[in-house]
Design a protein that fits this description.
- This protein is 24% helix and 12% strand.
- By secondary structure, the chain is of the alpha+beta class.
- It is flat, with a radius of gyration of 24 Å.
- The two termini are 41 Å apart.
- The model has no long low-confidence stretch (mean pLDDT 79).
């Protein structure tokens, strides 16, 4: 997988002063960047937000995340129904707690039984060869089928 940045969204970068220090006032003009999107500040490429520490993140709607830290051999997936500021919480938890909790100097021993279970479950689902009964359509289906409806404009 390529994790090379191909875009650098300017609103996600900190603004530096003439000494190369972060200018907090100018940087927080984009409050989302200042407060929450810092983990994604180092570029974007092939649907992945990149971080200079080597991690990369796929970010979906309502706090859906796939966060990868190759150096730690770590993948964290978060599904959520977040809204507003809560949608950025998983990224902060990943950087501030999860990655910092990895402290072992040696790899965990391989678990052959677990690997076999994972391999068995990783394939496509079993194909059903017997025909399935198609349920009868709801009565309203015949009433609305073929009709055209126009709805009022809604903001």
């Amino acid at each position: 997988m390529k994790t090379k940045p191909f875009a650098f969204p300017k609103n996600y970068h900190d603004v530096l002063d003439e000494n190369g220090d972060k200018d907090n006032e100018k940087s927080q003009e984009n409050w989302v960047s200042f407060k929450f999107i810092k983990p994604f500040a180092d570029g974007y490429g092939y649907q992945w937000w990149l971080d200079k520490n080597g991690a990369y993140t796929a970010l979906g709607t309502a706090g859906q995340y796939i966060m990868v830290a190759p150096e730690e051999n770590l993948v964290v997936v978060v599904t959520s129904q977040s809204s507003g500021l809560g949608t950025f919480k998983p990224a902060k938890l990943f950087d501030d707690y999860i990655r910092k909790a990895i402290v072992s100097d040696e790899a965990i021993a391989a678990n052959e039984e677990a690997q076999n279970k994972l391999a068995a479950a990783a394939g496509p689902p079993e194909l059903r060869l017997e025909p399935q009964i198609v349920p009868e359509l709801a009565g309203i289906a015949m009433h609305v089928s073929g009709e055209t409806y126009s709805l009022e404009e809604n903001n």
